[in-house]
Predict the 3D structure of the following.
Amino acid sequence: MEALYQLSYSPAIADPTRPTWPVSEVRSYQLCPLQQPHRQPNVEPFRGTGCVPWRPMGSDTSPTSTPASTSPANNQADENVGSTAALPTFRYDAALAAQIETRWQDLWEANGTFNAPNPAGPLADASAVADRPKLFVLDMFPYPSGKGLHVGHPLGYIGTDVFGRYKRMKGFNVLHALGYDSFGLPAEQHAINTGVHPRVNTEENVTNMRRQLRRLGLAHDERRSVATTDEDFYRWTQWVFLEIFNSWYDTDADRARPISELITAFETGEQPTPHGRAWAELSAAEQNTVVDDHRLAYLSEAPVNWCPGLGTILANEEVTAEGRSDIGNYPVFKRNMKQWMLRITAYADRLLDDLDALEWPEAIKIMQRNWIGRSTGATVRFGTSAGDVAVFTTRPDTLFGATFVVLSPEHPLVAELTTADQRSAVDAYVAKAAATDDQDRADDTREKTGVFTGASATNPINGEQIPVWIADYVLMGYGTGAIMAVPCGDQRDFEFATKFGLAIPPIQQPPASWYAEHGIEPTLDTAVWPVAYVGDAPYINSSNTDSSDEGLDLDGITSVAEGKERTNAWLAAQGAGESAITYRLRDWLFSRQRYWGEPFPIVYDADGRPHAVPDHLLPVTLPELEDFRPTAMDPNDDVTDPIPPLARATEWLDVELDLGNGPATYRREINVMPQWAGSCWYELRYLDPTNTEAFVDPEVEKYWMGPKHEGHSGGVDLYVGGVEHAVLHLLYSRFWHKVLFDLGHVSSFEPFYRLFNQGYIQAYAFRDERGQTVEASEVIDTDGVYTHDGEVVAREYGKMGKSLKNIVTPDEMYDEYGADTFRLYEMAMGPLDASRPWNTRDVVGMQRFLQRVWRNMVDEDSGASRVIDAEPSDALRRELHKTISGVDDDMANMRFNTAISKLIELNNALTPETQKLGGTPHEIASAMAIMLSPLAPHMGEELWSRLGNDATVTFEPFPTFDPALLVSDTVTLIVQVNGKVRDRLEVPADISEADAEAAALASAAVQQHTGGNPPKKVIVRLPKLVNIVA
RNA sequence: GUCGAAGUGGCGGAAUUGGCAGACGCGCUGGCCUAAGGAGCCAGUGUCCGAAAGGACGUGGGGGUUCGAGUCCCCCCUUCGACACCA
């Protein structure tokens, strides 16, 4: 009944560093000759209870006893033999794949096959590290959702796994691990709903995801799988926060430095104090304030969406257009609140400039550049009755055309500037702007609104008095919150001036082509212009030389760049302005009024000044709570401060400490960090997950992430994840990494050297007549007509997810096809960086491929090897070497879809020869097993083992090819007439141009198409093509 | 509106440098095997004309460069993604 394998063993492989399976485990496994349940309608599908699936004998302490292996008795297979006698017993199908896959997964785990050695520390194996290049490959780690995985999630994980496995075969020491981004709102919400601690739910979810991912056969170093909610992990998140807190940005040195050095610099006078007073003259309180104001983590009033009805602050997307909460429909108030801020703006230039050093998709770089939004221009001061109003402009050269000033409704000078007769109009407008949703204010299709303050300002370039207006399209959060309006040269100003009847004097002479484009006769009467003119053109009316010898005359100049430069110089000389740079990027609001996040390692003294919790008291652990709810208040109370959940931890709240001034009582910070915190540095912890002395050993960091040469940024060698993190995560983590770099904790100045965005898996979804989505798996396709429950439904297309009811889970794929088939399908669907539609119907193609490979190597009836000691034909050997060359290249460039095609072609070429020879030549079988193993690792190990190898295929060198076998004696010469293919000739590969031309002209097909006329011209591109121009 | 990516058979896709369009897979058609096939094997499968040989057309549309264009240039259309009054 049980078919035992007779394995033959080759001598142990010479390389002592290559792991070898314990012989007892490899030799003593057996295959269960299971029947194929899906062909027996009345038999339960195989769930592993039939017999012990291929686990190592005598290893009953295996750490991963899955349900599939817990009941070795009760062999159902016996009962089912008769009914399916005609079926091959060892057909490669889902049940057999399940046996093979779980067996190798157990062996990998038991042997720590994918444990990557460090150069130092507890995970060290210096001998294994010494002569090998390294590769740190990283996936964006997942949030452990309660819903588990669908087939869209593992796409990137499989891609990195294939790449990592390939690189191991190329001799690299590969570090690949996956952790969990496990703080966050869903777990907190679940805890609020159920009263169960979020840690419980989070750990359940992590366990489930680990199970789903383990079944995929990912070559991860499990020792490094950290979760951001582990106390051992967030102890170091808190430490990094304190490093940021205890630093300031030295703009001269252009790097962060410890705050202690700032105090020294103040004391010595090297760094001037903000108000110019000597450091020693400042009171202790004043000194503290000055120091705290320089920190990279600082407390500041920041505008937030406060919803007292819910007791929380909401993100913009949680606020409806009516200014109410998405959940509960409570009023939401925009108000200032004291929050932790991180000074990311100090790094704006470096975050921008260092993008050039990175190998990232250009589209992502563009998005980051736009997000940082560096604008160069000038600050110009306009005199008013309430003092100077500074405006920021990118076009100082157009100052002669500035005919009014516009302030943001929130501008601090609004009240003072408004004249009595305009008071009520202005107040009404300001109130209306405050009530207007940010998204509405940002809607450029909306008609311009505004109100005159009654005040005027002096244009410094010509002394003209121009009106001061207020408009909500000017934002307080950008630039200075005030603009100078140049209606002839800026479209928004043009629209505003047109609507309110303000002057639009021309200051540039537009070219004739511009008039033609807009269908108007050339004129300087701007009332006729349909739009503002923006661009290079000669300046007119742009001179003030009449009023002063030191005047500015731009008239006739055609270059905007030159105009800007000269205007800036003039402004600086007059003291009326200076060149300036403004960023769109703002400092990072880092406080959350939540429970399930990292507590801040901060305490406040009696004066309310924040202090760092001493390092030896880290981590500051989350206190246990019964109720994780924020404190809801009167929905209209926009005055009381929020009371975060941690305020309820009364025992924890106050703490007795000696921070150097003797024991005193301090009050803990009750906000927590945002979910981004852990993801800002997690990759560094993978390197050295158990280190209790440091967040990472510098030697270990340098080995895995250090720069490869002068000017190289260092960082992760390959980072793969979705494009949705293009800006926030990737900007925040770059910022943290740069702080750590400045302080000397890491040797790399960027965290992620190479970034790759994998595409999304999309899927068809179906809607009935009422517009409701219906369960996609229940829809029947009849020649393009889709029905659900007999009702015709419409097909659409979208991201796989619960809302579209079009989820397919990996577990379904494991059950129906096996992990290797699933992996191959995901990789074969298309290029890794392209989004692609999921189609379960297509998966079977990859299973058939594996079946055909299996059948060439293993007898389906007996389970015996079909690999024989025979020479392949020359043609097959050439095919093999061509495949090796192509697959190697495809793998190196992450083109896994075409690599798979080439392997299929090789197997298709192999099949007839195997049939003819009665078996597969060892040379082909061996190369096939190795090349297949990055993509279908379980199949790879199984075949490799059956070839008599007792070491894992993981570290087997990737096959090499003989270039001589890639060239053939003859080539197909394409013969074209007028660019159209008319004939194909087999010619010697080294044919001469003259011979090729003669052969082409002699072709009967060519004669027919040229009518025998002599060619006008003949183009020969050896060795492949001749084109005859008739 | 701006920026970015893309558009190739019934479907997913291939064509790395301007040189055989449609590799490979799904689906479909026919055959073999079979008591039976949701298995396997063999053959075919861009469209149109044709019994075939063969021919014409063909990579979103239009124009251009070239001996030769899916690929390069210009204009337009469509889809997807991101950003959006940024002074």
Remarks:
- Chain A has a mean pLDDT of 84.
- Residues 419 and 454 of chain A are 5 Å apart (CA to CA).
- The longest strand of chain A covers residues 297-307.
